[in-house]
TrEMBL record:
Pfam families: BD-FAE (PF20434). Residues 92-279 form the BD-FAE-like domain. Residues 1-24 form the signal peptide. Keywords: Hydrolase, Signal. Gene3D superfamilies: alpha/beta hydrolase (3.40.50.1820). This is Acetyl esterase/lipase. Belongs to the 'GDXG' lipolytic enzyme family. One of its GO terms (molecular function) is hydrolase activity. It comes from the Bacteria. Transmembrane segments: none annotated. PANTHER family: AB HYDROLASE SUPERFAMILY PROTEIN C4A8.06C. It comes from Microcella alkalica.
Length: 338
């Protein structure tokens, strides 16, 4: 499938949702929390500065199926996904590559239904994919590995033949996309998919501002670290075996999926020192990787502008070649520098 540039209205919609969504997250978190928690949430919100704001009514159109349960595939009770397909192809008669999108929020907050991630799901559909927006269990009530298990379950669900037929998914052509904590999760699950006995290997992974090595100082931002320790169920990073287990940096294997690693050069919440060693290690393992360093202090989806959205869409179209051209029967009817 040839690379297709994202249309300008879709890119504007993506900018609108990321800008307004980041502001909404900050306001909601600030109202709900007190003391240190409130200060932490406000700092996280501030890490994604506003871009130009466009009307949310300009969201790319998609046919959305909400709250599809995936517990039968190994996710926690009540965990669901939303499915977005191009509105002019809502019948699911044509199998399309799927892109699973995983929200951030320091593993402790966030939701697939948030305007930012709803729009990303719609944008993926408008770009020719089946977008699947994934929820997962949140820390501290559900520490590692609960979230990773839920994302793995979402992949298993999307690769299931019945699911594929119902939603028009090509189960042999799949990518993962995640921002911040979601970037950590999709990197981990994508790399582990190579040797998994639960899922087939995915084709590609896109990360935005992901914490990739939870053992080193560049992940130990005073704002971010308390949430990270809650997620790992550890009192101290220096004595935390789960930090290694939960780090994509230590899950790299030959034969892993292609990666597009995106990070802001001036980001403070998750410093760029998380991205460059990871990209180099991927390349050393023989994995195709593009490292996109953006001259910005923005965090995660706050990095998305026209140029980056087009680059992500092109990367996904290049990597996700359809495995077959047959219709589905409806049930019942930049290289890193060395």
């Amino acid at each position: 499938m040839p690379a297709r540039a994202l249309t300008s209205p879709a890119a504007r919609a993506l900018l609108a949702a990321t800008a307004i969504g980041a502001l909404a997250v900050g306001l909601l978190a600030g109202c709900a929390a007190t003391g240190q928690e409130a200060a932490r949430d406000q700092t996280i919100a501030a890490a994604a500065p506003e871009s130009a704001v466009f009307p949310l009514s300009a969201q790319p159109e998609a046919a959305i199926t909400e709250d599809v349960p995936i517990s039968a595939f190994g996710a926690g009770d009540g965990v669901t996904v939303d499915v977005c397909r191009p509105r002019d192809d809502a019948s699911a008669a044509e199998a399309r590559p799927a892109v699973l999108a995983v929200h951030g929020g320091s593993w402790a907050r966030g939701d697939k239904a948030h305007p930012t991630w709803r729009t990303i799901c719609q944008w993926l559909a408008s770009s020719g994919f089946v977008g699947v927006s994934v929820n997962y269990r949140l820390a501290p009530a559900h520490p590692y590995p609960a979230a990773a298990e839920d994302v793995t379950a979402a992949v298993a669900w999307a690769q299931d033949p019945t699911t594929a037929a119902e939603h028009g998914i090509d189960p042999e052509s799949m990518a993962l996309l995640g921002g911040s904590a979601g970037g950590n999760l999709v990197s981990l699950v994508g790399l582990r998919s190579v040797a998994s006995d639960r899922i087939e290997a995915v084709d590609a992974v896109v990360t935005l501002s992901a914490p990739l090595d939870l053992t080193v100082g560049s992940a130990a931002n005073p704002v971010f670290e308390p949430s990270m320790l809650d997620y790992l169920a550890c009192a101290d990073r220096a004595e935390c075996d789960a930090a290694i287990e939960a780090s994509p940096q230590f899950a790299i294997v030959r034969g892993g999926p292609d990666f597009l690693v995106v990070h802001g050069t001036e980001e403070e919440l998750i410093p760029v020192g998380q991205a460059t060693p990871f990209a180099l290690a991927l390349r050393e393992a023989g994995i195709r990787v593009e490292l996109a360093l953006v001259d910005s202090s923005a965090h995660s989806v706050g990095l998305l502008d026209d140029a980056l959205a087009e680059r992500i869409a092109a990367f996904l179209h290049e990597r996700l070649q359809p495995s077959t051209a047959l219709a589905l029967e409806q049930p019942g009817t930049e290289e890193p520098a060395p």
